[in-house]
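Residues determine shape. Next comes a sample protein:
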Amino acid sequence: MDLATIIGLIIAVGAITGAFVLDGGSLDAVFLTAPILIVVGGTLGATTITTSMAAVVRFPLYLKLAFFGRGQNMIYTIDMIERLAENARRDGILGLEKRIKGIRNPFFKKAMQLVVDGTEVTALREILETEIAYIEERHKIGIYFFNKAGGFAPTMGILGTVLGLVHTLANASDASRMAASIASAFIATLWGVGLANVFFLPVADKLKMRHEEEIAHLELMMEGVISLQSGETPRNIRRRLLSFVSPRHRRNEM
């Protein structure tokens, strides 16, 4: 579980609702079906038009990645590549074939299989770079989805407010209820702006962060595998790969 996402969401929602209640507001006045339906339904509908049904179907997966995703353990990967390099120097490249089955990451496993199959270094880099490029494109779909939703939500909120005001003015005969009706009309704007800035856009940025972390991890794997294929020593491979991690981790290696 990503505590930063959970705690950040709790703080944001808690601060907004807490301030509203302390100011004398009632939460019952906020949770109105019509404004929520306009904002949520309209936003998802408009976002679906700009993306695809495949992105909508993967919506729960994107949320799972944002709220429960884990960081990339690069030191563990460096350790593994170093051990593989040591095995390759001792037993030869073909001796690594029996160790490929224990690799869980599909990209890393494919890269090592290419090495064992005798793929030339230039071709190996081209294949892995192409793989990373397509992974980047797949990741961008989720980021694009939530960015678009964050852009549409405030507009849908304004649309809901306009519809509410139209309905209020069309029934202006009862002046005593007009003030309450006008206040209710602005609830749609509240939901639109709130969902955009507390949910959709933060989730998009979290997915972007996850994307950047994973791409850096994949590039580390690629450089490590290519160095192994080139016959570099395990120690030099480790030194090269440590450039991908933070200075704090590098100091721990000294």
About this structure: The two ends are 31 Å apart (CA to CA). Residues 33-154+194-254 form one domain.
